[in-house]
Amino acid sequence: MNYIDQNPLLFCRPLRLVSACVSVLEKGLCEIAAMSVQVVAAKMAEVELKDIPSKELAPGLVKNEPNVAVAAPSGEPSLSPTPSPNPAAKMPQASAMKRTDPQQNGGETFIGRDGAVAEAPRMKKIQFADQKQEFNKRPSKIGRRSLSRSISQSSTDSYSSAASYTDSSDDETSPRDKQQKNSKGSSDFCIKNIKQADFGRREIEIAEQEMPALMALRKRAQGEKPLAGAKVVGCTHITAQTAVLMETLSALGAQCRWAACNIYSTQNEVAAALAEGGFSVFAWKGESEDDFWWCIDRCVNVEGWQPNMILDDGGDLTHWIYKKYPNMFKKIKGIVEESVTGVHRLYQLSKAGKLCVPAMNVNDSVTKQKFDNLYCCRESILDGLKRTTDVMFGGKQVVVCGYGEVGKGCCAALKAMGSIVYVTEIDPICALQACMDGFRLVKLSEVIRQVDIVITCTGNKNVVVREYLDRMKNGCIVCNMGHSNTEIDVASLRTPELTWERVRSQVDHVIWPDGKRIVLLAEVRHPLILSSVTTLTLLSPQALALIELYNAPEGRYKQDVYLLPKKMDEYVASLHLPTFDAHLTELTEEQAKYLGLNKNGPFKPNYYR
């Protein structure tokens, strides 16, 4: 026999006590519930009767101010009853109870104290005048279109710092057809809406906090004005971070005129803030191809002003000047280029002997390669896909074309989110890196039928051709992380048998005759707006390259393409370290001599990447 069997009373007493407590609790809860029902019934009667005049009540009922209607004694005038000393008299049993008769389509009756049943007058529903007018109005054609657009955009647009504040604007007028002036009376700009300047200014102030290198450079060099006399024409993404760069160049003495290198990436509110600040900006989100080249031409072709420095992203600005205004190169001191595509164009010009001025390749600087291409894309690929498609990454099969720095960042992020990642690559060294990092190296033709997402980041052309697009599965997402739209053959999709359907801003469905559809992001232009992480270090090398080329003595740089000096690369990195509360270790004289280095750097050879 166990201990419980030997001592039954020891365990029965607590059980009986618990049982008694439960019974008391249940009884109390039931009473509380009953009282709650009664109170609710009384309140309902109050709500239904409080607006009914006394004369409209059925005979035998009086209005019991201020709460309920009660039955009056037969033959007596309608007076408020004398309060009863019994508290129960205040309960709903003493009041006229409402009853709904389902056989009379919701007709209501009241029961008096004597049990008599009286039918209450039907009450009219109250409808406010403005409500009646609002819902009875038939919207005009324009009104319906505006309402539809506002609803669809408010449900699909992403209101992040990277998204334009003006996405939901109803103003469909082209900025080229507007006459706008800033508060100083200047109209030398073309943007979406100058009235959004205050909002853009707040965006820029936030970006300044995330760009310590440029802010430190501005503080240290603005007294010396190393760019005094420089006339910089730029063609880059116009975001809050680019605005910090432009204002830094201005603080260092430069005059700037700017256009966008991408028709989708401009933050309209930031462009407005720059225009209000006196910058000549020609850009807005959603430009057409014709608008794109018109804006570049407005930057370059202006009476009484000629650029002497070029800051380019993709080479479009350099190409336009070379094609339309070649004589301008006689006064241009140098070109700073930061993209793979633009650098390729410069090397082609140099090889053909057509490069007229020195050019600085910022794209291959270490800070640009690691921060913009690797670390930034590791974050922006997820942000861009989530913002445009709301897709879940776990378990999705993704193929990333190219395993350079951009590809490495994309693959790392997608793998961390649980995606199954494949890699295509032409370079054996990058291919080996992909294998060592745990990714399966494939040909695109081997996996194109099964993958859920296709991402290109090669800088090449015709990576994804129509044949591959035809073989993709239904719902496959296609996007490009490179600079231009040459990697995916979008032109082949502009055929009569395929239907294009705009789903939301920068998202299109391309539908095949059998119903299959693919999701195309930003028509495979660069769909991911640059974030503060992207430009954390990228814009600092650009500023330093401009200063170097502008102030270089004649003869230091010839008509060729140069890498950013390693000393400048290291200087850019050092400007960011205080942000992370990082502390560098310094070499002793003996250690520097042993390594054959200057103790202050540079610490790596120029070929180090």
UniProtKB/TrEMBL annotation:
It comes from the Eukaryota. CDD domains: SAHH. It holds the Pfam family AdoHcyase_NAD. The keyword Endoplasmic reticulum does not apply. SMART domains: AdoHcyase (SM00996), AdoHcyase_NAD (SM00997). Residues 148-167 have a biased composition (Low complexity). Its cofactor is NAD(+). Residues 70-111, 127-187 are annotated as: Disordered. GO terms for cellular component: cytosol. Keywords: NAD, One-carbon metabolism. GO terms for biological process: one-carbon metabolic process; S-adenosylmethionine cycle. Residues 373-533 form the S-adenosyl-L-homocysteine hydrolase NAD binding domain. Residues 138-147 have a biased composition (Basic residues). NCBIfam families: PRK05476.2-3 (NF004005). Belongs to the adenosylhomocysteinase family. This is Adenosylhomocysteinase like 2. The gene is AHCYL2.
